[in-house]
Write a structure and sequence with these properties.
alpha/beta, seven-stranded mixed beta sheet, 13 helices, four-stranded parallel beta sheet, ATP-dependent 6-phosphofructokinase, binds adenosine-5'-triphosphate, 367 residues
């Protein structure tokens, strides 16, 4: 009987609960035992009550709850060999040989490290008498499957990550709310949105709300003096009769010289040069989403079915898969490749190779 562990890790994203629910229900329907590992990798390291067998009713009501009900964490211990040794020991003692990890690129990097070290970890545990010879022979291989849960939509090789669309909805609602007050007072608003080094949320929010100007890391303004360029656009829109000015800034936005573009600086520019009554709104953690939109519920559900199928189809010689979404199809790609391309994409931004960064993120360029 296959024993599958499921955990959520890194920043919470709406739709993670749909993943857990789907892994539990579909896993059970396929004759597996499913265990939830609470609090991300920390639960794996700590073991005990953090690893709990789930039944059909354990996940009742999960679909509509935002975030992750089994908890998530950023776990320093898992970044150390000793932490991963403890994690391996806890998995083996619970009889779990397959792990479905839902998280961002950091979590999936950790999963990949864990799997690549697995046989070394097992030998070390055996040598230290922390597991028996029989356990070492049964748990020769660890199956890992990655699901991408992140509001940032920053993972390479998948078109969309679980939680990103819910987050985008919340951002649009917030911008719409700001719009009404901006219109009433004829004000300008500079709105900062999340996304770390990725501009997807900011760009999509800009399109969906008709913002005047958007700053994203992947396309820094081409002008050295971007302040003048931005003012030109804002002034033109005002001259055309617009009563509001909305500037959306990704938290990782950069100028041509890779210097961070700050919302307060933009506010000062709009005030000083255009005389606009300007306010800054940092949307903050409301963007994590709350109740997931239908898309993220569906995405989490269908991708997790694919994740359980991938566990059941796995063989030691096959690379760990990551479940993605490409052109509206659920896809299975090597996890290691997707993680590597994601890191290369981040490095490309740092070296100002923006086109390359976009190519690395978008699988259509790679296939
Ligand atoms: P988000 O995109 O929402 O930030 P994330 O998964 O990228 O999510 P991280 O904080 O980068 O979030 O990673 C989550 C956890 O994954 C870390 O706290 C750590 O436990 C584990 N992890 C990350 N990188 C590694 C690594 N190189 N080796 C081992 N574990 C790692």
């Amino acid at each position: 009987r296959k024993k599958i562990g499921v955990l959520t890790s890194g920043g919470d994203a709406s739709g993670m609960n749909a993943c857990v629910r789907s892994v539990v229900l579909y896993g059970i329907s396929k004759g597996c035992d499913v265990y939830a590992v609470y609090e991300g990798y920390q639960g794996l390291v700590d073991g005990g009550d953090y690893i709990r067998k789930m039944d059909w009713r354990s996940v009742t009501g999960y679909l509509s709850i935002g975030g992750t009900s089994i908890g998530t964490a950023r776990c320093m211990a898992f970044k150390t060999r000793e932490g991963r040794l403890l994690a391996a020991q806890n998995l083996i003692k619970n009889g779990i040989d397959s792990l479905i990890v839902c998280g961002g690129d950091g979590s999936l990097t950790g999963a990949d490290v864990f799997r690549s070290e697995w046989s070394g970890l097992v030998s070390e545990l055996l040598k230290a008498d922390r597991i028996t010879k029989e356990e070492a022979s049964i748990f020769k291989h660890l199956t890992i499957v990655g699901l991408v849960g992140s509001i940032d939509n920053d993972m390479s090789s998948t078109d969309i990550t679980i939680g990103a669309v819910t987050s985008l909805h919340r951002i649009c609602e917030a911008v719409d709310s700001v719009d009404t007050t901006a219109l009433s007072h004829s004000r300008a608003f500079v709105i900062e949105v999340m996304g770390r080094h990725c501009g997807w949320l900011a760009l999509m929010a800009g399109i969906a709300t008709g913002a005047d100007f958007v700053f994203i890391p992947e396309r820094p303004p081409s002008e050295e003096d971007w302040e003048t360029a931005m003012c030109k656009v804002a002034r033109r829109h005002r001259e055309l009769g617009k009563r509001k000015t909305i500037i959306i800034v990704a938290e990782g936005a950069l100028d041509r010289n890779l210097k961070a573009i700050k919302v307060d600086h933009i506010k000062d520019i709009l005030c000083d040069r255009l005389g606009l009554d300007t306010r800054v709104t940092i949307l903050g953690h409301t963007q994590r989403g709350g109740s997931p939109c239908a898309f993220d519920r569906i995405l989490g559900t269908v991708q997790s079915v694919a994740a359980v199928d991938a566990v059941l189809a796995s063989t030691p010689d096959k690379p760990s898969p990551m479940i993605g979404m490409n052109n509206n199809q659920v896809t299975t790609k090597p996890l290691m490749d997707a993680v590597k391309l994601t890191h290369e994409g981040a490095a490309a931004i740092e070296s100002r190779n923006f086109d390359r960064a976009l190519e690395l993120r978008d699988p259509q360029f790679l296939d």
